[in-house]
Prior knowledge:
- This protein is mainly alpha-helical.
- The chain has 6 helices and no strands.
- This is PA2779 family protein.
- Residues 1-25 form the signal peptide.
Amino acid sequence: MKKIYRILSPLMIVALVLSSVSVAAAPIAPGSDLITTQAALNAEHGQADRERIHEILARDDVRDQLIEQGVDLAEVEARVAALSDAEAAQMADQLEQLPAGASVIGALFAVFVILLVTDILGLTNVFPFTR
């Protein structure tokens, strides 16, 4: 048994050294960027913010108010998906800070403001009075 260990030990050491050297020396493909840990965490956080917004917009009372205001629900979903991570975080924080009774009106106001700003910037065409 000791003879097997004496043969396998150097082989294992050489294999480990060679495998670590080849990984460290492997070139990075051109055009592929490394993603930092912070960027990966921010991406997850941005997705969580969008999910919180979708949860609020999925409520029946919010949907009813949006339809009553003449807002297309598919357009709202597309706008939320198009938000940057910073905008999604800001909107999610604003929606969570609203009091319980005013959450519907506040949510509608936040959605309206976002729709209005994107319409003024010319990214969408929802409100005709912005022309």
